[in-house]
Amino acid sequence: MFKRSSLRTSLALALGLFATGVQAEAITAYTGTLPPYTMENGGAPQGIAHELVTEMGKRAGIDITIEYMPWKRAQSTVQQTPNSLLLPTSRTTPREDIYAWVSQLLVADEVFATKSSSIDSLDHARGLKSIAIMGGTPRDKRLHAEGFENLTVTKDTITAIRLLDAGRTDAWFTLNHRFFYTLKQEGLDPNSVTVGSPIKSQQLWLAAHKDFDADTAAALAKAMEELQADGTYDAILAKYLN
Q1: 153, 140 in Cβ contact below 8 A?
Q2: Taking CA atoms, which of 11, 49, 62, 194 is between 20 and 30 Å from 165?
Q3: d(CA 203, CA 89)
Q4: What is the C-alpha to C-alpha distance for residues 84 and 78, in angstroms, rounded to an integer?
């Protein structure tokens, strides 16, 4: 849950100081390298979620510094650090009371990408000879738990899409945004692949320490609404996915 704002923050909001770039306190947002959402890229951080949160902060007049670290450490850091943010994290029942939820950033779909017919269910996928999956991801763990034995585990997304393009695997099970970003990276023709119906969808949010200031959260959420209304949101997604 959100914490009531201090008098200082409330007055700042009431006077419109946030709109002019003056705020009560700078905020650190923590994340890991999670392509295409957050990426360090040799000292020039970028990614869909990175750009969205940066723009939200600018519009709300809130000074947000995004710090990269291993993903598990980023999560624990925000849980222990007042006035901090986490991006992007899936909003799930086990996490509901761990964080405060500031704004939904994206909805990500788990899909099978193929070069043949559409794969629209796990049962259908069981009949494939080979499925590429990136090791250590929730999708890797889930398919192993479901008893799949036709998995080709890869260390990264580039390997997975190259296996698919070369016909060395029948499908790649991944997030839709990750697939289209990697497809663009490799310069492959989107018409050469088939993306099946979502197997599962997850909401990716900007989360915060559970006692995060409510007025600051509201200002950031309002900034997201503005991004969506004026086309900036769609433009950021298109930069990475189209």
Answers
A1: yes
A2: 49
A3: 8
A4: 6
For residue 57, the SS3 value is: helix
User: For residues 139 and 149, what is the distance between their CA atoms, to the nearest angstrom?
Assistant: 14
Distance of CA 195 to the CA centre of its chain: 19
Peptide linkage before 70 cis (omega within 30 of 0): no
- Token pair belonging to 188: 């492959």
Contact present, 17 and 61 (Cβ < 8 Å): yes
In whole angstroms, give the CA distance from residue 100 to residue 222.
16
Residue 130: Cβ-neighbour burial (10 angstroms; 0-12, 13-18, 19+): middle
pLDDT (tens place) for every residue of the chain, 242 residues total: 666 544 334 434 444 444 444 445 689 999 999 999 999 877 777 999 999 999 999 999 999 999 999 999 999 999 999 999 999 999 999 999 999 999 999 999 999 999 999 999 999 999 999 999 999 888 999 999 999 999 999 999 999 999 999 999 999 999 999 999 999 999 999 999 999 999 999 999 999 999 999 999 999 999 999 999 999 999 999 999 98
**Count of C-beta atoms within a 10 Å radius of residue 137:** 16
Torsion angle in degrees (nearest 10) through CA of 158, 160, 166, 170:
-160
112/118 Cα distance (integer angstroms):
8
Name which of 92, 89, 91, 93 is nearest 75 in CA terms. Answer: 89
